[in-house]
Write a structure and sequence with these properties.
The protein is α+β, with helices and mostly antiparallel strands. It has helices spanning about 5-10, 105-110, 120-135, 140-160, 175-190, 195-200, 205-220, 220-240, 245-250, 255-270, 270-275, 285; strands spanning about 15, 20-30, 45-50, 55-60, 65-70, 70-75, 80-85, 95-100, 115-120. The chain has two domains: about 5-165, Jelly Rolls (Sandwich); about 175-285, Homeodomain-like (Arc Repressor Mutant, subunit A). Residues about 165-175 and about 280-295 have low confidence and may be disordered.
């Protein structure tokens, strides 16, 4: 059992050291019995670890990979994936969603890695310690939770970047590496304006090629993907930081608060101030186990 409410109340920004960068935590999650979901994708990293029981398949771009108790598996931005149980009971699952500001060799290796599945004792041990500490009301447990959260993210980056070739799988899309470089560049630069030509130049393709690559990889246009990534990060900051609306708008690339509010309201049905006061309201659509729309960015 993982008391996710306490974890999600912590600071969303984790400094992971010069070798790793820093992570913007979007959500911590736990399911004692995760139901099957449909193929879907995100604008962020979603890293899952199977707990004490369960077995299934992690499907990446329709290719099945067996997962068992203790395995950690990696869903990367823009990549279609699905989790399916193959035994009863349904798997116990711990997972964390985050965006990554890459720094140093380890962070870069993780961002560029094709690793899909790893069995890592350190990751498993820290998840267990985090679950125990999160349930504790002993003085100082908040500080311990923060330390364990940072340690877990560091262990995840290591597990997802330094494994032998047999535990990784290249994408079936021959241009996936270029598309992933574009996605990484977008996430590293959400706080400022981004043009199609700048992103294309960064990965050495034409704007037309970039549009085709991202369409194949993310299922949407570059502009739509950038907007979704900005708003996903904005939601996390609204729920988990004390930044003002103006500061959050600037942090995700909207220097005009009025424009930020209009775009945010269009997607969420309520303005950012109301979203914050209500504690969200659409969290299940983004982070819940029951994904309902085939292939969507969720």
């Amino acid at each position: 059992m993982l008391p996710v409410q306490r974890l999600n109340a912590l600071s969303p920004l984790l400094e992971l050291g010069e070798e790793n960068g820093r992570a913007q935590i979007l959500n911590w999650n736990y399911a004692p019995h995760l139901p099957n979901n449909l193929p879907h994708r995100h604008t962020y990293f979603e890293i899952c670890t199977i707990g004490a029981y369960g077995e299934g398949e992690f499907l990446v771009e329709n290719a099945p990979h067996t997962i068992r108790s203790g395995d950690t598996f990696f869903a990367r931005p823009g990549v279609i994936h699905q989790i399916v149980n193959t035994t009863a009971p349904d798997m116990e699952l711990f997972w964390v969603c985050f965006s990554l500001e890459v720094g140093g060799d380890v962070g870069r290796a993780f961002a560029e890695s094709n690793t899909l599945i790893a069995y890592d004792e350190r990751v498993n041990a820290i998840w267990k310690a985090l679950a125990t500490t999160s349930a504790s009301t002993v003085a100082g447990s908040i500080e311990v939770m923060l330390s364990l959260s940072c340690a877990l993210l560091q262990a995840i980056l290591g597990a997802g970047s330094a494994l032998p070739a047999s535990t990784s799988s290249p994408s079936h899309n021959p241009h996936a590496h270029q598309a992933r470089l574009a996605v990484r560049f977008i996430h590293d630069n959400l706080a400022r304006p981004l043009s199609l030509s700048e992103i294309a130049a960064h990965i050495h393709v034409s704007p037309r090629q970039l549009t085709r690559l991202l369409g194949q990889f993310t299922g949407t246009s570059p502009a739509a993907y950038i907007e979704r990534a900005r708003l996903d990060r904005a939601e996390a900051l609204l729920l988990k930081s004390s930044l003002s609306l103006k500061e959050i708008a600037c942090e995700v690339g909207y220097p005009d608060v009025a424009h930020f509010s209009r775009v945010f309201s269009k997607r969420n049905g309520n303005p950012p101030g109301d979203f914050r006061r209500r504690g969200g309201g659409l969290t299940e659509r983004h982070f819940g186990p029951n994904i309902q729309r085939l292939g969507d960015l969720v």
